[in-house]
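Message: Study each token:
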Amino acid sequence: MTADPGRDCILYWGNESPIPAVAGINNFTVTVDGEAIDITNNDSSGWRELLTDEGVRGVTIQVSGVVLDDTLRADKLNGTNQQAAIFEWPDGSQISGTFHLNAYSDSGPHDNATTFEATFVSSGTVTYTPAA
């Protein structure tokens, strides 16, 4: 695996076809969660025991960048919170599924560009497609 520039990652958001890319992103974080299932009991000799399977699983995508359009702001304020999303790495691998726009914020300093932050959380099954 080679190193990739973060600027080449893309987040697509929406129910249109094709799904449009979110404009202006310059930072991102992708977190894949899986809650452990605790099966500790009196026979565990005081040590925690966990199932190898996970309970609730999910993906969180956090992005930030420069506001180039009002798509995310409008979606959040209009209640269009749940849509298809695809996060694509530079090598072509992808995470896709239905995501909920959980949080959105704008920040506008007087001497610089208006920036945004948004957090998307998965709803339902998420699919990982490796690079071809």
